[in-house]
Specification:
By secondary structure, this protein is mainly α. It folds into 2 domains: about 10-335 and about 445-540, MFS general substrate transporter like domains (Growth Hormone, Chain: A, Up-down Bundle), CATH 1.20.1250; about 345-435, no CATH class. The chain has 25 helices and 4 strands.
Length: about 550
């Protein structure tokens, strides 16, 4: 039966299910990732009282806020999905996501309403995160429960393309709007247009989703009276089920998440922030890589029906851990060779007492890093300067030494607010002049960007993303029984992607600021991908032949299902 299902073409009803589920999820991801693609402009509009480096970090933290709450959305909407059904649950999540995105487009900035602007913005990001906690999982389960046995990898791979398609759509809309209104107008008000467009996408998405029926597996289970009355406690209050959820987190989704966000979001941030490539050029090159890499989601999803989910996902994690450092160093050489030359030629040292230096990771936004050492490191990190730390500095002081030039950082205390801001600006200008004298570029030279090589490297990163993500939905669906599938699958997926993946940009930039090496932030995805490959290889079993409709199937990936 599996061979016959694999051989036949997709039916009209199956095509409708895949198309409608995928298209709606594309629009959801478009809404969610607009913010990330416009992080630099969001920083200027909503965090304007801060210096440029701090504002960007706070914008990233607001971006991360949407990821932090995704597991809570997974619990809420997973519970609803297992009780009332798949279809209506992801209709609710779609409405929350679309309306929150639209409101960002009409939200006044800090200059208009003060601190209320970033507070409301973060609140909207939290709502988006909650909605995303239920949307993706519902769509993946819906498609998997419609797919014939032996083709779940191929069918659910279409859902796996939606995150990348949503990112690509957001980049294309942003680029189109930039071109239409001009860079100056886009920075002032044109950035709102991509958010406002989401209301049209929301209407299309709701109309399409309303035409779908409930999934056959859920209908059958409900008709037989086998739905769970307490899916959260059944999923995580029983060790047999909780164990499978934990294995899914440490052996699958944590590594998949960091590979996904490194290959797509961190690569874009690295190009624009660390390598100083202008936003339009960087987005065009990333968009080209997305187009090249996207078919591989379908390829690896289909291959997982033949070769198995586990070997493809684990190989992707291993390759990521082994090749990220050389890949990103090659990316730096191709995108900004002048920066690479300056880093190799010039010595930059921060002379400071280590006790006055903080690790600048702040996911809640509650901490402020204002010591002289913190200010010096943050400014150098914003200029993509690799530096060393000399621990012999005096307590409460820091000096940036560029060649033979010493530039003292202003004190953290004893100054009025206006005086402190002027001192910080003067310090930044002095560092800027010294770096320019030693050959550090303020922007990547467009004439020296090796665009084909940049796109090739980005495309390789996309292939790694497709390896770990293409087969993932099918494997997660196959790990959990129908009655608690929505809840059980949602939490490990969104813990992995919301916390391990969503926190990757601020964590990586914090590591780079702490160590003085623009590449050191890669240790975060390298270590997690490596640990996932180890845990998954040792602890997970193959799931591709599991019968997901079997009512008495044991929990977890421990049977072949034949």
């Amino acid at each position: 039966m599996a061979d016959a299902a694999s051989a036949r073409a997709m039916t009209r009803e199956e095509r409708k299910v895949v198309f409608a589920s995928s298209l709606g999820t594309v629009f959801e991801w478009y809404d969610f990732y607009l913010y990330g693609a416009l992080a630099a402009i969001i920083a200027r509009q909503f965090f304007s009282p801060l210096d440029a480096g701090s504002a960007f970090i706070f914008a990233l933290l607001a971006f991360a806020a949407g990821f932090i709450v995704r597991p809570f959305g997974a619990l809420l909407f997973g519970w609803l999905g297992d009780i009332i059904g798949r279809k209506y649950t992801f209709l609710v999540t779609m409405l929350i996501m679309g309306l929150s995105t639209f409101i960002v487009g009409i939200l006044p900035t800090y200059d208009s309403i003060g601190v209320a602007a970033p507070v409301i913005l973060i609140g909207l990001r939290l709502l988006q995160g909650l909605a995303m906690g239920g949307e993706y999982t519902g769509a993946a389960i819906y498609v998997a429960e419609h797919a014939p046995h032996g083709r779940r990898g191929a069918y659910t791979a279409w859902i796996q393309t939606t995150a990348t398609l949503g990112l690509l759509m957001s980049l294309l809309v942003i680029l189109g709007t930039r071109t239409l209104v001009g860079e100056g107008a886009f920075a002032q008000w044109g950035w709102r247009i991509p958010f406002l467009v989401s209301i049209v996408l929301l209407g299309v998405s709701v109309w399409i989703r309303l035409s779908l029926d409930e999934s056959p597996a859920f209908r059958r289970m409900k008709a037989q009276g086998r739905t769970s009355v307490a899916p959260v406690s059944e999923s995580f209050g029983r060790w047999a089920n909780l164990r499978v959820a934990l294995l899914a987190l440490v052996g699958l989704t944590a590594g998949q998440a960091v590979v996904w966000y490194t290959g797509q979001f961190y690569a874009l941030f690295f190009l624009t922030q660390q390598l100083q490539v202008d936003a339009t050029t960087a987005q065009l090159m990333v968009a080209a890589a997305l187009v090249i890499g996207m078919p591989f989601f379908i390829v690896f999803g289909a291959l997982s029906d033949r070769w198995g989910r586990k070997p493809i996902i684990m190989l992707g994690c291993v390759l990521a851990a082994a090749t990220y450092f050389p890949a990103f160093k090659a990316l730096a050489w191709a995108a900004n060779p002048a920066l690479v030359d300056a880093q190799a030629r010039s010595s930059v040292v921060v002379v400071a007492d280590p006790q006055g230096c903080s690790f600048q990771f702040n996911p809640t936004g509650a901490s402020r890093f204002t010591t002289p050492c913190d200010m010096a490191k943050r400014i150098l990190a914003s200029y993509s300067v690799s530096y060393q730390t000399d621990p012999t500095g005096q307590p409460g002081q820091a000096v940036v030494r560029i060649g033979a030039t010493d530039i003292p950082a202003p004190p953290a205390q004893g100054q009025a607010p206006d005086e402190a801001r002027r001192a910080a600006a003067s310090f930044r200008q002095a560092v800027d002049r010294a770096l320019a004298l030693h050959g550090y570029p303020t922007q990547a030279d467009p004439e020296r960007i090796h665009a084909p090589l940049v796109v090739a490297i980005l495309s390789y990163l996309m292939v790694l993303v497709a390896m770990v993500y293409g087969p993932l939905a099918a494997m997660l669906v196959e790990m959990f029984p129908t009655r608690i599938r929505y809840t059980s699958m949602s939490l490990p997926y969104h813990l992995g992607n919301g916390w391990f993946g969503g926190l990757l940009p601020p964590m990586s930039f914090a590591i780079a600021a702490q160590t003085g090496d623009i590449y050191s932030g890669l240790w975060y995805p390298v270590v997690i991908a490596g640990l996932t490959a180890l845990c998954g290889t040792l602890l997970l079993r193959e799931t591709r032949n599991v019968d997901i409709h079997a009512p008495d199937r044991p929990h977890g990936p421990h049977r072949s299902g034949r």
